[in-house]
């Protein structure tokens, strides 16, 4: 590229010089811009018209909005800028707002709310529940049929999906849906007003939205965390023994199997029983499966293994009753590229159980007791392995002490998990 003319504020003065950024190929410049922080992109945008064109798309591709009195952060966006917005995330004003009661009487219809038009909007994430943010989310969903990726975070003390039933009914054509449900249960006599808010009726709108989008849904992420209130009123994580009861098993509810590409389930009890009763997804279309804290999923995984012919990525975290079933499971599964195994520190683990996948796995993460001193596989013959990480435990306490990586240049407690192909595959 030849010299670039840069116009100044001084009349009749033009400085001509070569811009090193604009002289490189466009593809290389884009790689550079993609690695810049937003503050740097904003500075570059102000330098010249050409750099503005290069940076504006990256600067406004993702919007993060918190509620203000007049929603100035959203309404001040001009139409020529709004065309670049692809993702909008709505947050409460403060983290403490997540635990404030929702006064439905203060909710106003979104019909009179004015928002810019985002012709390329595809992703909408609603974190928590704030009446003002809820109005914005409803308005955006009503006016933008292009939204394909929706995330709803309902992990709050005083909120359940029934508060959004009307809004959720009209959502269609989703390809990716993430729902995080939550509840609080009373554990201290001095907090009698904090009771369990979960029941099958209260979260029915979430299931209705899933089944209404069964023809288009490709990625589904469901999380069922629960919280207990401690002695000082703070919320603490807890396992929920009744989450499987929240899954609708009424005959005819799942008329169509979900043709999912990715499925992630967290804190779902009795996954095998749920699938046996519902058959809510087609295992043949799955390419990625994650089960996190879904206890006793051994039988269901073994039964589904031979049907998951397209599976490439598997994550199993604290979801096996008998860890030795892992060997049989990996034998039945097709060749995997990504494998993440996590076992409680009380369970023994043998790395040889993974040997049936050693010719295909590229990325391996293991969280288990370190038993490599028992003449286990040292991974030298894992031809395709590019990244390998171990979460090391203290055997006495079970506490994690850090990540062991293949890269010998990293200390053992370095949290980074990275090992380029070609590093010595031996500790």
TrEMBL record:
Tree of life domain: Eukaryota
Residue ranges of domain F-box in the record: 18-63
Pfam families the record matches: F-box-like
PROSITE patterns: FBOX
Name of this chain's protein: F-box domain-containing protein
Organism encoding this protein: Orbilia oligospora (Nematode-trapping fungus)
């Amino acid at each position: 590229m030849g010299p670039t003319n840069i116009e100044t504020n001084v009349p009749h003065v033009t400085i001509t010089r070569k811009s090193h950024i604009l002289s490189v190929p466009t593809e290389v410049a884009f790689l550079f811009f993609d690695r810049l922080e937003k503050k740097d992109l904003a500075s570059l945008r102000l330098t010249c018209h050409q750099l503005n064109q290069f940076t504006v798309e990256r600067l406004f591709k993702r919007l993060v909005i918190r509620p203000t009195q007049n929603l100035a952060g959203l309404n001040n966006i001009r139409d020529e800028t709004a065309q670049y917005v692809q993702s909008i995330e709505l947050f409460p004003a403060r983290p403490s707002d997540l635990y404030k009661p929702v006064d439905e009487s203060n909710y106003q219809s979104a019909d009179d709310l004015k928002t810019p038009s985002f012709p390329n909007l595809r992703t909408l994430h609603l974190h928590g529940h704030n009446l003002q943010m809820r109005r914005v989310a409803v308005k955006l969903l009503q006016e933008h049929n292009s939204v394909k990726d929706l995330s709803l975070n309902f992990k709050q003390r005083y909120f359940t999906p029934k508060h959004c039933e009307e809004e959720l009914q009209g959502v269609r054509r989703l390809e990716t849906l993430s729902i995080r449900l939550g509840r609080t249960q009373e554990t201290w006599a001095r907090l009698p007003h904090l009771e369990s808010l979960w029941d099958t009726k209260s979260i029915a709108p979430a299931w209705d939205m899933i089944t209404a989008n069964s023809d288009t849904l490709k990625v589904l992420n469901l999380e069922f965390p629960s919280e207990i209130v401690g002695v000082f009123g703070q919320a603490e994580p807890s396992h929920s023994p009744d989450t499987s009861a929240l899954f609708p098993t009424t005959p005819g509810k799942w008329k169509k199997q979900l043709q999912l590409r990715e499925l992630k389930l967290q804190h779902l009890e009795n996954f095998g029983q749920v699938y046996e009763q519902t058959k809510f997804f087609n295992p043949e279309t799955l390419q990625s499966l994650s089960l996190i804290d879904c206890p006793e999923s051994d039988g269901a995984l073994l039964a589904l293994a031979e049907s998951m012919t397209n599976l490439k990525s598997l994550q199993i975290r604290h979801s096996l009753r008998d860890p030795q079933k892992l060997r049989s499971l990996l034998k039945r599964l097709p060749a995997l590229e990504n494998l993440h195994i996590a076992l409680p520190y009380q369970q023994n683990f043998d790395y040889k159980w993974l040997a049936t996948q050693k010719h295909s796995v590229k990325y391996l993460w293991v969280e288990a007791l370190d038993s490599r001193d028992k003449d286990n596989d040292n991974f030298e013959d894992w031809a395709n392995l590019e990244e390998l990480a171990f979460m090391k435990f203290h055997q006495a306490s079970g506490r994690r002490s850090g990540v062991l990586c293949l890269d010998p240049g990293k200390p053992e407690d370095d949290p980074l998990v990275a090992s380029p192909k070609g590093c010595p595959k031996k500790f």
